[in-house]
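Observation: inputs received (chain + zinc ion).
Thought: call the complex predictor directly.
Action: predict_structure
Action Input:
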Amino acid sequence: MLMNVAQPSHTPRSRRGTPPASDWLENRNAAVRNDPDALLKELVSRRGLPPTEARLLVLRILRDDTDGHMSAEQLCRALVKQDFATGVSTFKSAIYDLNLAGVLSRVIAPLNSNRAQALYEIADKPWHRHLYCTGCERLIEICDEVIEQRISHQFAVAGLTQANLDFARAGKCLACANAESVHG
Ligand SMILES: [Zn+2]
Ligand SMILES: [Zn+2]
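Observation:
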């Protein structure tokens, strides 16, 4: 009896012998189809951390958040809503471990006139900065290659390595500024 052996799909290779980007993307998409947390597990393992349930939980909450930047308190509130067996202290240390390992990066933004808050995001994007509206408490990401080049240059001149941290520049968006001028 003839066995029906599945043949690997042959996609054309580039002339240099490295798989084309489409192969890599296809493999990655297939992995994600089989396990929706595949990318998160990869992020954690790549930084040498075992992908524990608490760590994946932190990353899942951040990935599924529309804004993608959350404080430890907001993350804990989301955890409690999901009613998981993971204790809050285990969950909090997962946040700090992920940040130390570079899986999460931190943005410091104003909380009120004399306090600041740390917001966490998954560090899977290119280097970027943040603007912050103090009215609606919205973070706006700015990806500007020229700014990043200038900053990297200044870090190199000073002999410093950039930390996994950004300080958001505060301002007021048009809607908040208009609302203020109407009410006050
Ligand atoms: Zn605003
Ligand atoms: Zn960001």
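Thought: report the result.
Final Answer: Residues 21-34 form the longest helix (14 residues). The beta strands are 70-71, 104-112, 115-122, 129-133, 138-142, 165-167, 169-171.
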